[in-house]
Amino acid sequence: MEKIQYYKRPALGYQVILFARGSNYLGIHPTLHTVIEYQYGSRYSYPARDEADAREQAVSYAISAITNHYARLGTWTEARIYPFGGLIGDMRVIAVRPRIEYTVNNSTGRGTMMDDSGLVRFGTSTWTYEGWQGQVYLKQYAKTTFARECLGEYCQYLYNGKPLFRTVGNDATFYRPPTANQLRHILKQIPEDFEMCFKVWEQLTIPVYANQPRYGQEAGKPNPHFLNAKLFNDLVLIPYREARFESHMGPFLFEFQRHGMTTDEFCSRLDTFFSQLPTEFKYAVEIRNPSLLGPAYRQVLERHGVAHVYNHWCYMPPLAEQHKRMEEDFTAPFTVLRLLTPLKMSYEAAKKRAEPYNKIVGELPEMRKDAVALIQESVKLAKPAYVLVNNRSEGNAPTTIQALVEML
Fold it and tell me: Does residue 290 carry a pLDDT above 90?
């Protein structure tokens, strides 16, 4: 097989990411996220002289376009605008990023590969798998430094001459919040246009501690910190702000294990919790109780602009069935998918089946088909899609992601 040659061309323009506080006509989403791209070499673009000029133009065009209801999906003005929301309150710029083009030279004739929308972000559940040596990781790492230093190479992994991973999950933050120094170390390794999806500390998502040794004397007892908004605001969020990580933030992932709460109780607690959180971050909820899927749960998420995580996990319904129970409507200005394990298979069995995570051990055609359909629907609505794939689904997450890219 001929090796693909690639090179990175200079930035063609700038991508400006804006945040605005406001609401749409139905009063559903409390936030508005808008992406405006200034690209050289296109009759649709308005060339920006530099980043400062792009920033100024972006705010001007966003206010004009959105307040006049001119930015319709798929419509071009002098800049390409993807609105997620309605009338503007206050607006500020989150980030200004150079647009990069990757050109492929090989006998396949693929030519220039470029993502015009940037709406789909693929990544893996985490990045520290030694089974990817020789595939994702070609450098030699000491065993003691691999987990700490390999993220930079992960971000550089190419498929068809283009970075395959534009996001990644961080599972470690489920067990303890990160420190500001840990986040600063991550910032040194990731490129400008990369976002990380952090799991939220389990102290906030466990109603009752499981009977496991790691919980010590708390095992089996109710958790007094369950959905404690003050704890989230005061302890979880502070390191991200101190490290100035905001421009690289994907959605916070609230993972709720199976529990015995009623739908009404859970949704009430969820509603109260999200009403007390700051609106400049993105939030997503992953449930493991299929019975929660339905109108009450959907309405709470929609009211706060929070995404439901479409999770392909042991005992959850298929992705398409989840979407059907969510009334076939996304609840947030963005979409989140996590492809974790085969259905109707325990986590332990999925883990044993997939190890050592260096090859596909069994394709899941329905999972792939449903995931692609959800991604396509999200893109059609101009909603960014975060797609995180776990090795335990098919055996090798990078290869699964490549297959999804080809299907798209």
Answer: yes
